[in-house]
Design brief:
The protein is α/β, with parallel strands linked by helices. The chain has one domain: Vaccinia Virus protein VP39 (Rossmann fold), CATH 3.40.50. The protein is 39% helix and 16% strand. It contains 9 helices and 7 strands; from the N terminus they run H-H-H-H-E-H-E-H-E-E-H-H-E-H-E-E. The protein has a 7-stranded mixed beta sheet with strand order 3-2-1-4-5-7-6, sandwiched between helices. Strand 2, helix 6 and strand 3 form a beta-alpha-beta unit. The protein is globular. Bound molecules: S-adenosylmethionine (SAM). S-adenosylmethionine (SAM) binds next to helix 3, helix 4 and helix 5.
Length: 270
């Protein structure tokens, strides 16, 4: 007697399926080198001519200077200042997200979202079932992000509007998880794009990681940029001491000097 072989089951998306970003989609998000080089040469030329460049000296500055500097940039010049970050993130974020964010109903935290450029890139990796919460220190930048949301700018691959919420907070505040826009939400993914490694110090970065331990679902991922203010080894040792597992680095390009640390949450501890 012959036994009929059952047809192979086609893979169907499940609640646990993770988002996949293929090379074609990555290429469509990446900006050409010429955009970055034109910006760098433009700034170098402005300095040569004795002109002050918007945001100059903010990296590694004191918390007070960072706050004042971004308040000034919110009045004008933020998009120009942030262009290199956008260039980096359009390459790095799709790599960080790939295989690590649930395809459906993901809740994502954008740490230091500015006017929502990183939120926009995250949206482009997802779909209308995603919800992204952006937090930033500077009210003027958050107002700009909210205006973009109201204009329907944050859209997923499916063209649907991604749900967003924005709030003003210092990401290194000890009571960050109690913020009204964050309280009661368990995040599946948290990302910092050009924020922690540039504008915090090691103690404040540690405080943020303590908050993430509370806000992230156990087993979920975070991608946190390191840089001159919080170097890679400092960030890695701190994260591991708090129960995160270090999984590797995400770089926009092979020699990216400010990679993101890819961390997996072990959940809150006693
Ligand atoms: C270079 S911008 C990057 C913005 C956004 N992540 C992106 O990729 O387009 C850095 C952002 O970090 C924010 N920031 C710096 N220190 C912060 C802090 N302690 N708490 C919250 N936001 C902060 C700034 O206000 C600014 O919007």
């Amino acid at each position: 007697m012959s036994v009929a072989t059952p047809p192979a089951k086609s893979p169907t998306p499940t609640a646990h399926a993770m988002v996949q970003i293929d090379s074609q989609q990555r290429a469509s998000l990446a900006l050409p080198w010429s955009v970055l080089l034109r910006h760098k040469f433009g700034n170098a030329f402005a300095r040569m001519c004795g002109r002050r460049v918007h945001g100059q000296g903010l990296i590694g500055a004191s918390a007070q200077s960072v706050q004042g500097g971004f308040a000034g940039l919110a009045q004008g010049g933020f998009s120009h200042y942030n262009l290199p970050q956008v260039w980096v993130e359009r390459r790095a974020l799709p790599k960080a997200v790939h295989g690590r964010v649930p395809l459906h109903d993901a809740s994502i935290l954008d740490i230091g979202c500015g006017i929502g450029d990183s939120t926009w890139i995250l949206s482009k990796c997802g779909n209308a079932s995603w919800r992204i919460t952006g937090i930033d220190l500077e009210p003027g930048l958050i107002r700009a992000a909210e205006a973009r949301a109201a204009a329907g700018e944050f859209r997923g691959r499916d063209g649907g509007v991604v749900k967003t919420a924005f709030g003003v907070a210092d990401i290194s505040a000890a009571d960050l998880p109690d913020h009204p826009k964050l309280r009661g939400t368990t995040f599946n993914f948290a990302v910092s794009c050009g924020v922690v490694g540039l504008y915090l110090d090691p103690a404040r970065a540690r405080q943020l990681l303590c908050s993430l331990r509370v806000m992230l679902a156990p087993g979920s991922f975070a991608a946190i940029d390191c840089g001159p203010s919080v170097p890679r080894w400092t960030m890695q040792r701190t994260a591991e001491s708090l129960g995160f597992t270090f999984l590797g680095l995400v770089r926009s390009v092979p020699l990216d000097p400010r990679p993101k640390l890819l961390l997996q949450s072990g959940g809150p501890r006693g």
